[in-house]
Design brief:
Chain lengths: 386, 388
Amino acid sequence: MIRPHEPTARSKEAMDPTLDDAQRAYQESLRQFFQSKWPESSVRASMEARTEEETRVWRQLAQQLGVAGLTLPEEVGGSGSTQIEAMLVLEEMGRALYGGPYLATVVLAANALMLSGDGAAGKEYLPAIVAGELTATLAFAGNGRDRSNAPTPTARRTAGGWVVAGTAHRVIDGASADRILVEADTDEGRSLFVLESEDGLVRRQVETMDQTRRLARLEMTDVPARLLCAAGEAAGVLDRVRALACLALAAEAVGGAARCVQETVAYAKVRHQFGRPIGSFQAVKHRCAEMQVRLETATAAVRHGARVAVDGSEDLALLASVVKVHAAESYFRTAADTIQLFGGIGFTWEHFAHLHFKRAKATELMFGSPRDHRRAIANTVLAVRG
Amino acid sequence: MREFLAAELPADWRGVGALDAEAADAFAERWRVTLFEHGFLAPSWPSEYGGAGLTPLEQVVLAEEFARVGVPTGIQNDVFSIVMIGNTLLHWGTEEQKQHFLPRILSGEDRWCQGYSEPGAGSDLAGLSTRAELDGDEWIINGQKIWTSSGHLANWIFVLARTDPDAPAHSGISLLLVPMDQPGVEVRPIRNMSGDSDFNEVFFTDARCPRENVVGEVNGGWKVAMTLLGYERGEAAATLPIMFRTELDRLFALARENGAAEDPVLRDRLADAYVGVEVMRFLGMSSLARFLEGHPPGPDAAVSKLYWSEYHQKVTELALDVLDVESLVVQGRRPTNVTMFQTDDVGAPNDSASWITTAMISRSGTIYAGTSEIQKTIIGEKLLGLPK
């Protein structure tokens, strides 16, 4: 009898030729953590409403596994590891359909705080983030690269300091985050702020297609805010954070797709029709093979993206677009095939497949759709070279 | 490696594709001699057999540099002579076989081709029916092979033949080394859909070879044949992405020149092709890491082969759409196939004949060396453990 979690014939080592032993051990601890602490029942409970469990699990992730401070320096309590370890965290989160504070708090906010070079703000917020005691998010104008007509929030100086006004859409964890960073236009150009008050701020949670992740609309009416970086000089920080966010979603996508392939292949081995396992039929076998090809190529892409985020050897924005397009489209196609290969049961609410299907589509569309990214890629690679 | 290339190539070298067909052929023959003299023709072979004894990493570096500057690693037959049968003899051959055949391969005296597929045995290779029977000190061979690439340029053929007709399909096969310059061997060219004739039918009518010309054990040829197929790809993980990227850059140049790059739909497809070739590079780095750690290519090769062959069809279909009505007319330089028969030669001009021929040739990529369907079955069964 094949158990659902039996690994596929390919060994994990063969999948991860570039990981060292310590990284593999960390990956294993993470996987075990999510298997015991964030099973599918936890995912479903948190889809209904915020749970105490979420907060507890996030603290444990931060305090026991050090995920929040992985890439942060020791001065703020971090462990000074690299984007490679962060990528492993994200892969396991994707596998477990985890929708907790990591993406918004760490990938968006903590990275932006670090990159902003604002030492005082860093000292104030980062140690609490590392400890799992403070959550945060970043509201990109248009949440990435989308074509929404919503104008970018604006900020202006008043006698009492900066205030931000306008609406930010689809802000990840926007209803719950303890601190909100906002991209806003100033007379000097693109700037980055931390909101300093709830006065004038209305947070509205929105209903999401992908219920494993929470989004909110933030309506700001002259909310007092603190400027990070110099006014008009946030473009570099925001672009880098956006690239890291794309790589993060790609890593999550790889984890989610790996789970889909694993479960689908296991099912194809035990589900019998016409007196034989359905996985023995070529129509099924070949669809599984296509899933595996997408998974291996997306894994290779994500691993390379993380290496470049560490060593800076290539144009990160271009690479992040390439990696995100491939990983997100692969995840979506594989999640769709998962529903198909499970048949009727795969279409039910109780089955896990739709959770991946919706999350995969959301992954494709957040921080720039595949079409947006291909447009950006074309603008770079089709430009006449000097 | 760069010093070697700088010293041996003309200062204005732009790749084999910048030469016309005749000059390209002449260059390939001359270049082969240069490689031979430096031991680079079989870089992985031990020096006692005429190789350079390079480590896997050094082989990769050499292959990468060659791919970058657009010079071949040998002539067409060398894929069969060196990569396939030469490597197989190194692994399975007797000392006498190595001493006899390997130097003759490197000197160019023996040029090999492959006698595997038959009209009735393509994907199901073990269903082959060419027979070999012992007659004193010689094997007598009867049957027919097909899709024998470069067979018309070869004087030796390695033949999979049934030597025990009563044994189960995989157990009664032997790998024989057969000279082609004899009355019992006839080669007939087959014209492919691009209009060229690179592959052939080979007929054996009481053809003969010495009894000792068996590689591995008699009736043990299947195992030998399978290791041989593994040699088809090694440092390809490094060179394929370079080759396909060079080709795509040429397509980008064409799209800029003729305005296709301004069309939003084509622009989206061009960007998608860029994603495709980049992903091939990432996959290559991952395969390479495994190769350099000493893992043999194995079933992983199925993923890579499936990926690049499907990619190439997509990108050459795109090329014809970028050319638009220019694709209706065959104009300019055709690929010479000196470098490889996957992309056109490095440095080739952006002529319609180049893209049209390449688009036609690309249809074979998902068929030869295991069709896409066979690759998916290998992935399903060998990597995922799905039942037969």
